């Protein structure tokens, strides 16, 4: 019997050595969880045997239990490197459409050839679908899908409105001959100018420039003319309610509010342009404009020059001055005794955006940013927890699968309930303490030697008995 006891001790010591060696071997494995060999004694006695004199029958390995304590966090420069601080596992599937879910703490993710977020083994990271505001549409693991990062942000949007706020200097001098001598290529024929990038229906960019010319203060006091050009080609600013080109050119004098006046006599300038007229009070408040709603029209006749790429040639761009006829407001243009200053110049068009970056929040929200200045929520990384983590089945590659002992997978968002938070550009290191493992290694070695010695002594005793005559 003593042979069997010593032999069980050898087996237990060998198992302890194996577990310790495996921990040491994975000291640099991302997301690895150390194991601990747990032993129990063997004791058996018959019904009538005396328990006071019964000796144990050795030792057995009861379990090799993994310890899911938090590993240290190492920060990286890769936004797709993910680490969980607290409870939870990442969920992955081996291929699209698969229901074979595995769970891991190793967050070394990257993009594959189809722009899906995958780990080194090709497992697709699962995420919950999100609404346009970034809120989760569902937190059920059955609705989780592989996360894909699109390289473009969709179809372009043609510019339809430009919002502009500026101050026109009240002290600017009247340029003799204006606006009849206006020439966009001659800065001596206009007082100020500003530009904004607009987009056509194909997402191609163009530069729209606005030129401001102070009118003759003896004829039209506190009035300015505004002309426009796209990519250096002058365009007409037309009244959306009438044919401004047929009725004449902006210029000359008339009485009454601008929005109710007939168009003044022609004043075409060098290019025969139709411009807009802006009127201010003596205190610098913007009170009127003509046309009533100034629209810059890229007409069909300019299609071969400005929009030679095949974009929609009848694109209309509305110029919004935020006119409030009742009282001054901070969104209107002004005419004060200060420098020319553009305080707002925005347009609503978009080019086709290309992916420029990925941002992942502590709650797992994946947001893509694009070169056209937009950002878009794509998905929310699914986290999964279990009632008994140590009951998970190891499958290698620092991954586990659900088992009867572990309980069912419980899905949720990072930072909610008992789930930990997600750190982007970080990795969870192995939770192995190398110093402790080396001490355990020495201890396991001593145990092995002691059991070997017990086996040797048993053998010597048997030899002594066999030699008795």
UniProtKB/TrEMBL annotation:
The keyword Cell membrane does not apply. Residues 424-468 form the Flagellar basal-body/hook protein C-terminal domain. InterPro entries: Falgellar_hook_FlgE_sf, Flag_bb_rod_N, Flagellar_basal_body_rod_CS, Flagellar_FlgE/F/G, Flg_bb/hook_C_dom, FlgE/F/G-like, FlgE_D2, LlgE_F_G-like_D1. Residues 177-349 form the Flagellar hook protein FlgE D2 domain. GO terms for cellular component: bacterial-type flagellum basal body; bacterial-type flagellum hook; cytosol. Gene3D superfamilies: Flagellar hook protein FlgE. Pfam families: Flg_bb_rod (PF00460), Flg_bbr_C (PF06429), FlgE_D2 (PF07559), LlgE_F_G_D1 (PF22692). One of its GO terms (biological process) is bacterial-type flagellum-dependent swarming motility. Keywords: Bacterial flagellum, Cell projection, Cilium, Flagellum. It is found in: Bacterial flagellum basal body. Its main location: other. Residues 83-151 form the Flagellar hook protein FlgE/F/G-like D1 domain. Residues 3-33 form the Flagellar basal body rod protein N-terminal domain. PANTHER family: FLAGELLAR HOOK PROTEIN FLGE, FLAGELLAR PROTEIN. Belongs to the flagella basal body rod proteins family. A flexible structure which links the flagellar filament to the drive apparatus in the basal body. This is Flagellar hook protein FlgE. The lineage of its organism: Bacteria, Pseudomonadati, Pseudomonadota, Gammaproteobacteria, Alteromonadales.
């Amino acid at each position: 019997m003593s042979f069997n006891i010593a032999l069980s001790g050898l087996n237990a010591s060998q198992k302890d050595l194996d577990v310790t060696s495996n921990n040491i071997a994975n000291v640099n494995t991302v997301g690895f969880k150390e194991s601990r060999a747990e032993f129990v004694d063997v004791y058996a006695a018959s019904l009538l045997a005396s328990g006071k004199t019964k000796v144990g029958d050795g030792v057995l390995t009861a379990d090799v239990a993994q310890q899911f304590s938090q590993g240290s966090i190492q920060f990286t420069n890769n936004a797709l490197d993910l680490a969980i601080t607290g409870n939870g596992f990442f969920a992955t599937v081996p291929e699209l459409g698969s229901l074979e879910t595995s769970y891991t703490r190793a967050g070394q993710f990257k993009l594959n050839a189809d722009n899906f977020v995958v780990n080194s083994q090709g497992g697709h990271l699962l995420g919950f679908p999100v609404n346009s505001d970034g809120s989760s549409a569902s937190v059920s693991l059955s609705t989780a899908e592989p996360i894909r990062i699109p390289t473009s942000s969709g179809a372009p949007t043609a510019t339809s409105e430009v919002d502009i706020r500026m101050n026109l200097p009240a002290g600017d001098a009247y340029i003799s001959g204006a606006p009849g001598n206006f020439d966009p290529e001659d800065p001596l024929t206009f007082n100020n100018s500003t530009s904004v990038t607009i987009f056509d229906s194909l997402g191609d960019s163009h530069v729209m420039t606005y030129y401001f010319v102070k009118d003759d203060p003896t004829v039209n006091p506190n009035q300015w003319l505004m002309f426009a050009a796209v990519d250096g080609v002058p365009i007409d600013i037309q009244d959306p309610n009438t044919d401004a080109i047929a009725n004449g050119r902006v210029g000359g004098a008339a009485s009454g509010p601008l929005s109710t006046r007939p168009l003044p006599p022609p004043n075409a300038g060098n290019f025969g342009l139709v411009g807009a007229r802006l009127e201010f009070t003596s205190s610098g408040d913007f009170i009127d404009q003509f046309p009533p709603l100034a629209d810059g029209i890229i007409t069909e006749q300019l299609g071969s020059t400005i929009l030679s790429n095949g974009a929609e040639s009848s694109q209309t761009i509305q110029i919004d001055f935020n006119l409030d006829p009742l009282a001054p407001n901070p969104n209107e243009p002004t005419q004060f005794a200060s420098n020319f200053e553009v305080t707002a110049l925005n347009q609503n068009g978009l080019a086709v955006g290309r992916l420029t970056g990925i941002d992942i929040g502590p709650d797992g929200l994946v947001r893509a940013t694009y070169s056209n200045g937009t950002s878009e929520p794509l998905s929310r990384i699914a986290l999964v927890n279990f009632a008994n983590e140590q009951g998970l089945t190891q499958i290698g590659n620092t991954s586990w699968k659900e088992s009867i002992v572990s309980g069912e997978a419980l899905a949720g968002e990072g930072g909610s309930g008992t789930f930990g938070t997600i750190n982007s550009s970080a990795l969870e290191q192995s939770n192995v303490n190398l110093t402790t493992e080396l001490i355990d290694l020495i201890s396991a070695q001593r145990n092995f030697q002691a059991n070997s010695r017990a086996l040797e002594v048993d053998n010597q005793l048997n030899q002594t008995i066999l030699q008795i005559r």
